[in-house]
Write a structure and sequence with these properties.
Length: about 300
């Protein structure tokens, strides 16, 4: 269990829900997917469908509203992404053993990315840059970042970072990381909000034949700091390939460093929190933090 408030879900429970609510899939094989994801359990239903079950307990009505917002964001994202992305197919209701809403969507073939698998690939770096550029070109329609997560003011995350630093004693070079955050949190804005995926971690990027093939978990698509999606460069690429992303996007010094700040904020929460329950996510945090500390420009 990754979270204290985690809701149990297994293939038998999913089959009950599918047979009851989506009988058109009742004869399909249902398999839980091994994933580094932390927010949802993913089950494959036959060859072309997937179901997502939120893992953390929340009010049933609020959960349904969240999934409806996610579906709308996914639909909007699909109109701007140059790469394949799942499409919403339906919303499931709570059942006898699972107490919240859940989502059904189309399946996209590919292998999830890793921090090192394509770190030295110039072609993959160009794919990442082209994805970010395409999303930035989408019209915000007057919307601005308005959430508590990553994508707004860096100093708003000071309390969380202090929690992470305290919990990382003995695991990481906390003194250096504190100093890095102290510098990066002071960066000014680099420009108006742009449309962003808002969680471009390796687990949300599908690769095939050495290239980017698909993008998952687009339910957070919305306006944010233009530097936010640059976390992908720190999570996935080595220094020379990061330079390709920066050059292709034309990122100035402030924007690039703010991307490093968001990567630091995300990675600091991964190492200690998932150390025992999700080693792949913990290792991602270590990899990203190492890249940040080893980069002479940061």
């Amino acid at each position: 269990m990754m979270h204290d408030d985690q809701v149990p879900i297994d293939a038998d429970m999913v089959r009950e829900l599918v047979v009851d609510q989506f009988p058109e899939y009742r004869h399909e094989r249902i398999v839980r997917l091994a994933s580094a994801g932390t927010d949802n359990a993913i089950f494959r239903i036959g060859p072309g469908v997937a179901a997502r079950f939120p893992l953390r307990a929340m009010d049933a009505v609020a959960c349904a509203e969240m999934l409806r917002r996610d579906a709308a964001a996914m639909t909007e994202f699909a109109t701007h992404s140059p790469y394949a992305t799942p499409r919403p197919l339906g919303l499931g209701r709570p059942g006898a053993r699972y107490p919240m809403a859940w989502a059904v969507q189309s399946w996209i073939d590919g292998e999830t990315g890793t921090p090192t698998g394509l770190a030295a690939s110039a072609a993959f770096a160009r794919d990442i840059a082209d994805l970010i550029a395409s999303l930035r070109a989408a019209d915000t329609r007057g919307r601005r970042f308005d959430g508590p997560g990553r994508g707004g003011r860096l100093p708003d995350h000071d309390d969380w970072m202090d929690v992470c630093f305290r919990n990382s004693d003995g695991l990481l070079d906390v003194a250096r990381l504190r100093g890095l955050w102290a510098r990066l949190r002071e960066l000014p804005p680099s420009g108006p909000d742009v449309m962003s995926h808002r969680d471009l971690i390796p687990a949300n990027l599908l690769v095939r034949d050495g290239r980017l093939a698909g993008v998952l978990d687009a339910g957070g698509f919305g306006p944010a700091d233009p530097a936010l999606d640059l976390v992908a460069a720190w999570h996935l690429l080595d220094r020379d390939r990061r330079d390709i992303v920066r050059s292709r996007l034309g990122s100035g010094d402030v924007e690039w460093m703010r991307g490093a700040a968001w990567a630091l904020q995300q990675a600091m929460g991964l190492v200690w929190y998932y150390r025992r329950t999700n080693p792949r996510m913990s290792d991602l945090g270590r990899s990203t933090l190492s890249r940040l500390l080893d980069d002479p420009l940061v």
